[in-house]
Amino acid sequence: MNRIDQRFQDLKAAGKTAFIPYITAGDPTLAQTEKIVYALEEAGADIIEFGIPFSDPIGDGPVNQEAALRALRNNVSLRDVLGLIKTIREKSQVAILIFTYYNPVLAFGLEDFAREAAAAGADGVLCVDLPPEEADGYKMALDANDLRTVFLLSPTSTD
After folding, report:
1. What is the pLDDT of residues 34-83, one digit of tens each?
2. Is the dihedral of CA 30, 36, 40, 42 positive or negative?
3. Lowest mean pLDDT: which of 77-81, 124-128, 139-143, 152-156?
4. Catalytic: 129?
5. In Å, what is the CA distance from 99 to each residue of 12, 54, 72, 80, 104?
6. Dihedrals phi, psi of 86, to nearest 5 degrees
7. Which of 49, 80, 116, 123 is catalytic?
8. Catalytic annotation, pick one of 60, 80, 116, 123
9. Which own/partner contact pairs does 133-140 have at CB distance under 8 Å and 24+ positions apart?
């Protein structure tokens, strides 16, 4: 069972809600990010939103935008982040949800991204700027690799 599914199942059975912190991978460095993940897990994080640094994070607030810019100044790439997730999997089984924009995924290649994210040990992807009605190929690629898909919805979103 996917770690996200398992965690939510366990939380529901215990009558608890999830603690899902967000961090930007590579801020301040990849090595520090690894340590932060372990500290968050130790502090009780159920799932960690693992932000992929992006040059135009329009959906993020100023704190996350600055974190992404610091990581990009360190030349942190999507491939670097996948490598970090793989390293984290050697010591941790905390659920990891990749938080990204569609452009880096599209540039990487949908199928390649899904395959490599799953192989690294990611559990799902939240793509903040991809509406569900335009995500068929993306969702198929993630589903084929047992990655959970999270979409952002607004109060005006249809069922």
Report:
1. 999 999 999 999 999 999 999 887 777 888 889 999 999 999 999 999 99
2. positive
3. 152-156
4. no
5. 23, 10, 15, 14, 11
6. -60, -40
7. 49
8. 60
9. 137/110, 138/102, 138/105, 138/110
How far is residue 151's CA from residue 128's CA, in Å, rounded to a whole number?
7
Q: Which fold has domain 21-125?
A: TIM Barrel (3.20.20)
Check residue 102 and give left, alpha or beta (phi > 0: left; psi -120 to 50: alpha).
alpha
Verify cis geometry, omega within 30 degrees of 0, for the bond prior to 28.
yes
Length in residues, the chain: 159
60 is catalytic: yes
What does the pLDDT read at residue 134? 93
pLDDT in tens, 70-88: 999 999 999 999 999 999 9
Q: Where are the domains of the chain?
A: 21-125
Q: Rounded to 5 degrees, what angle do the CA atoms 148, 114, 38 make?
A: 65
- What pTM was estimated for this model as a whole? 0.94
Question: Is 7:32 a contact under the CB 8 Å cutoff?
Answer: no
